[in-house]
Amino acid sequence: MAAGCLSKQEAEMPAATSVAPATEATTTQVPGPVPGTRITEAYARMLARDAYLWGWPMANIYNKRLGFGQAPEPGLLGGVLPFAPVNRMAMLTDYIDPAERAVACPNQDVVYGGGPLALDVSPVVLQVPDFGDRFWVYQIVDLRTDSFADMGAMYGTEPGFYLLVGPDWDGEVPAGIKKVFRSPTNTGFFAPRAYQDDTPEDKRAIQDVINLIDAYPLAEFDGTVKKRDWSKLPVFPQPEGDGAETKWVFPETFLDQLAVLLDDAPPLPGEEPRYAALRELLAAAERDPKLKAAMVDEVKKADKDLVAPLFEFRNYGVPLPHHWTTIDNGAAFGTDYFTRTAVAKSNILVNKPQETKYFYQDLDADGQRLSSAHRYTVTFADGELPPVKGFWSLTMYNRHHFFEPNDIGRYSVGTKNKDLQKAADGSLTIYVQPDEPQDPVQRANWLPSPKDGEFSLYVRSYWPEEAITSGKWTPPAVVRAR
Fold first, then answer.
1. Do the first three CATH levels of 69-227 and 313-480 match, i.e. the same topology?
2. Which of 27, 39, 400, 474 is surrounded by the most beta carbons within 10 Å?
3. Which band of pLDDT confidence, cut at 50, 70 and 90, is reported for residue 390?
4. What is the pLDDT of residues 34-86, one digit of tens each?
5. Which residue windows are transmembrane per the record (predicted)?
């Protein structure tokens, strides 16, 4: 067909209709409900319950900031726990005392320090001494209990001065600061740890090192190393209690604090709808006192039947052989709200997995609850001790996740103990029982359990090898003696 000529069929076809390109909607969707939307009591209860599970760790850390902030100066709470105002710290000079009840699951492998961070008040300078070949790690967490600064032996951190700043700080970094770590929240907590052998010699040797650990507001930084004699600290009274952990989260006032928590911790990616819904929930509670009363009632219920069971190690974590459990995202929980709250409830302030890998146990090899009514053994085969570059320990906790005084003052065994006795085949058996063994070898390897009640065991592996972080190594069974 000649160019420019149309067939009859083509000539009769309708002309093509041009289609205008699609245009974007003129309305913009916003996360969460429209402000002022009426909501039902059932919905308000559901959202309040979810908010409590989600916000429990943040309320815990925020109330530690408020509680510790009442200290007039660095000191010791009850003479047993580092207690300091915001942006400062206090340091122990030996293992933590068994009487400590402010923070569950302490350990007697390290010398602890601690203090609350209020980075909206001031940036904080951290002083790092030369630890030599001694294991150490500085735990530095934000309001969510996620770590935001990697400092320790496993990171090759050099001695010197480091700066912690809040999310909005834009000041000048003075000369002499090696590195700046920016927190995503203004509130946080600082908890240095330095390993100590259970020998008189090492307890003396560590003093010169820990006296150079310090934290203070940026305004006090002058480029010189500050030395503190941490053995001379004032003692502040510890609140009376029933043996359980000091209460840091209060269901009755949680909703009153929620707005502060939302302001302090900006939403993680994808959390914007959650934040919008919670802010509107608080607005609805302010408009309707009866609705708020229902929400407070639901929070109290959530505290009892949702959060309280997370205190038990067997109720969360990654299941392992022999009924052990573990977590793989310590201090890096992100949006794993369940694990974050479970850890905060049962053993808050855990390290990252590459710093410390934790293994939890409530049950024996047969799945029965560990109890002082029975004797148990934990046997590490030859070459099967926890593979670590730092140290390891097996710790005993009573039903409150604290130490219960015993006749020999031993609450954990591991690297720090120089008198543990191996069998002829190279294995190491730990004897877990309330009464003192008569056999000398068993006596050397005895980990006293409480005289009465249920208890838990807890393996720490500091600076774990790949076999632990990959899951190739897990703890042996806790075997009940027949």
1. no
2. 400
3. very high
4. 888 899 999 999 999 999 999 999 999 999 999 999 999 999 999 999 999 99
5. none
pLDDT digits (tens, 9 = 90+) for 322-358: 999 999 999 999 999 999 999 999 999 999 999 999 9
How far apart are alpha carbons 304 and 186 in whole angstroms? 30
Element (H, E) at 67: helix 41-68
According to DSSP, the β-strands at 160-165 and 177-182 are parallel
* Residue 113: C-alpha distances to residues 136, 174, 193, 234, 446 (Å): 12, 26, 7, 15, 28
CA distances from 299 to 38, 336, 345, 348 (A): 21, 20, 16, 21
Q: Which CATH code of 3.40.91, 1.20.1250, 2.60.40, 3.30.470 fits the domain covering 69-227?
A: 2.60.40
Domain 313-480 has CATH 2.60.120.600: yes
- In the 8-state DSSP scheme, what is residue 145? S
Stronger pLDDT, 241 or 166, i.e. the higher one:
166
For residues 57 and 438, give the distance between their C-alpha atoms in angstroms, rounded to a whole number. 45
* In the chain, where the domains are located: 46-61+248-300, 69-227, 313-480
Q: Say which residue the tokens 């420019």 belong to.
A: 4
Which amino acid, 462? Answer: Y
Supply the pLDDT for residue 36. Answer: 87
Pairing of strands 455-464, 478-480: unpaired
User: Is the pLDDT reported for residue 437 higher than 50?
Assistant: yes
What is the C-alpha to C-alpha distance for residues 416 and 282, in angstroms, rounded to an integer?
51
The residue length of the chain stands at 482
CA-CA distance, 53 to 203, in Å (whole number)?
Answer: 41
Sheet architecture: strand order including 356-361:
318-319, 325-326, 356-361, 455-464, 388-398, 412-414
Which residues are within 8 A (CB) of 393 and not within 5 positions of it... i.e. 6 or more apart?
A: 107, 109, 412, 413, 414, 415, 416, 459, 460
Cβ-contact 363, 457 below 8 angstroms: no
Q: How many CB atoms lie within 10 A of CB 307?
A: 20
